[in-house]
Amino acid sequence: MDSLRPSPILQFNPNQIQEVRKLFNYDDIKRLEQDLNTFEAWIAKQNHFLVKSFDRNYLERLLIASKGSVEIAKKRLDKLCSFRRALPEFLTKFDMKNEFIPKKKWCHTSIMPKPTADHYRVLVTRVHDPEATDFVDFMHYYRFCIAMLDYMFNRDYNAGYEVVFDTRNYTLGVVSKLNPLAMRKAVSIYLEAVSLRLKYLHVISGSKLFDAILSILKQAMTEKLTHRIVVHDSLESLHKYISPEVLPADYGGKEKCLKDLFEATLEELCTDENIQHLKESEKAKTDESHRITLKFDEEYLGMPGSFKTLCVD
Predict the structure, then answer these.
(1) Mean model confidence pLDDT for the chain
(2) Computed over its alpha carbons, how large is the radius of gyration of the chain?
């Protein structure tokens, strides 16, 4: 990958590809090419993959999200294909032009156009109308985030993400719709399959139910990731971590307001090109009846083989 395609919703830092590669020891392009070749060779041998040909730029981004580990990238791709089969309600049959109309009425979620100085992308999400009658559950929210992250894997090249989760408008009605099991599934998809590399989860407090919200969030995350939660009681506190240059106007920043950014993001996700890309991506599933179960070979030696069982009396 030599350059990034222009995007109406994304801006890039100078030399962003090269700078991000350096962060994960890929400043040597030969090492990157070697790892990509190894990755592609492994994919070709996976009998349970229904699709064995992936865009090389996508695989490169997956290696970056895996901190340059081919083994971690393998597991994440395997999980993504497996989750499309096991959790189709999250990952398949996207109707971009229609299914997110109800979400617009109660929640705004968007990627910020400018990356941070260290090449992270900021995602901001907020409930703007907790009384919206179309608000049934968070499934449309989870699916929108998955579609948005899929777009980012196709068009961006970042070091990871910082997520701003604004809870100030959360009411009892909103919290009652936060199903911990569904949230746990969504978080597993984001982090383990879609490969959202999380630097910090910034949670803006202000709701009377904040303690309950924070408890549900922590239930959905691993103990390691809970240490990346940063609670803010003001926008000034948030600005100590994220520059106002990157944030929306209604968060004390210099970008457009979050509503306008969300509208622009949704419009871009609804282009014919992106819709076709999503449809093609959905084909990458697994057929578990063809999975080779030699876990020792795959995970520890990285190659197929046969081993005798040692019996000890």
Answers:
(1) 91
(2) 20
Q: State the DSSP string of the chain.
A: ------BTTB---TTHHHHHHHHTT--SHHHHHHHHHHHHHHHHT-TTBS-----HHHHHHHHHHTTT-HHHHHHHHHHHHHHHHH-HHHHS---TTTTTHHHHTTEEEEE-SSPPTTSEEEEEEEES-TT-TT---SHHHHHHHHHHHHHHHHH---SEEEEEEE-TT--HHHHTT--HHHHHHHHHIIIIIS---EEEEEEE---TTHHHHHHHHHHTS-HHHHTTEEEESSHHHHHTTS-TTTSBGGGT-SB--HHHHHHHHHHHHTSHHHHHHHHHHTT--B-GGG----HHIIIIISS----PPPP--
67 has a pLDDT exceeding 90: yes
Q: What is the pLDDT of residues 158-173, one digit of tens each?
A: 999 999 999 999 999 9
Q: Which of 73-77, 106-110, 132-136, 144-148 has the lowest mean pLDDT?
A: 132-136
- pTM (2 decimals)? 0.90
Structure tokens at 173: 């009605």
Residue 59: pLDDT over 50:
yes
